Amino acid sequence: MDEVGERVFDDTKGAERVVLFMSPGRDRELLAEWFGTATDYTVVTATDTDDLPADYDLCLLDDDTSNAWHDAVSERTTDAKPIYLPHVLLTTHDRQDTWHADSVDDVVSLPVGRDELHRRIENHLRTRRASLTLAEREQRLRLFQRGIEAASQGITIADAEADDMPIIYANDAFQRITGYETDEVVGRNCRFLQGRNTDEAAVTTLRKGIERGEHVSIEILNYRKDGTPFWNQLDVVPIRDDDGDITHYLGFQQDVTQRKRRELRLSVLNRVLRHNFRNKMTVIRGYAERIETGESAPEDAEKIRRAADELLQIGTQMYEFDTLVADGEAEDEVFDVIPLVRSEVDALRKHVPNSDIATDLPEHAVITSHPSLRAALRGFFSLFEDDATVKLDIAIHEQNDRVRLTVTDRSDVLSRHDIEIVARDTETPLEHLDRLEPWLLRWAVEQSSGEFGVETAHQYPTVTMHLNAAKSE
């Protein structure tokens, strides 16, 4: 049906083409004359298959052409499927065994009245029109389905008329984004993607928009099948029937986690740097004024120097931050994390003589990580330098292809509130940190394709990092 099928999306509606595939003679001439004056059809005559046009809507044959070109006519019918292409035999024979029934759709015995012939032809053309309309719909549906399946966005369809509006369709991108297979999704309301840190305000906005039958567009924190969170740019669009009633909801899901993380990181950087820079410069200016007025004490210079050192440390953190945001695709490095941790523990013990640091470390733990992880770990341990009684439990264990590093703080340096904010990977104007180090550690772990978690339910808060063990050669 290649040639005929091309007409499915052709919106130009010309006169239907009727072929008189008949032997030359008086009958063909009379039919051609009648069709030309009494009908709206376009009429073409043909004697053999070389004259038969590639595209037509109905073909009239006589006994000679039906017998001579039986196979060619049958092939045209087969090629046209599933579109109906009628072939009508005009015959003077009464015996059915002289007809090739598999090559014609109707047999008209001659002589026949013009009104009867016109009625028979119009019935076949009406059936053909219906088949063309059906084929067009089916082809459009196939095109739409291919487009939906090829889309990079997740696409779902929910039944608005069923209890709890279950999903009845989810495309491949939805499965790729969420990790759920089709049979785990169909029949469920999409709220199964929500989790403990999903913003209730976003959920309320979504629910109220659906209740009002409106298009809803929100960014919401969802969770994949494996429990990892992701930011979902969600659009929910109502689909209405001819009466205006909502029958389904079309959902579009796009993973915007990377953009949200960059926005958060830039926001954190801006706020922390402004806060710390302002504080340190206030210290420097204050002690400098004391020196200028002659009111300084011997330790003022040391305080100025320390504030300046802290500003330099902020500059170093800015560089590390830049590698996390602007250089996210940096090549991973392989290093043994044990010497780094031992070095940081020794430095803490030297800096804080009364420290109580218990370690459970193997001889080696070689990992593959983003280049920023080394500095992020050093920055994290530097948080404990100013505490008079550092109390830490540090353990590293290898589990299959992972290296687990846990740090339990028994000295109250790590605020439960602060590390829970970092674990949620979100800040608010009322809930935020004044230090970059915990954020840098989390982001460096994530850039290393690792997992960052905290535990605050027990007596002492614990930070856990799961890192990728380097593959042995």
From TrEMBL:
Q: Which residues form the PAC domain?
A: 214-268
Keywords linked to the UniProt accession: Chromophore, Flavoprotein, FMN
Q: Which SMART domains match?
A: PAC, PAS
Domain PAS residues, every copy = 140-213
What is the name listed in the Swiss-Prot or TrEMBL entry for this protein? Answer: PAS domain S-box-containing protein
**Keyword RNA-binding listed:** no
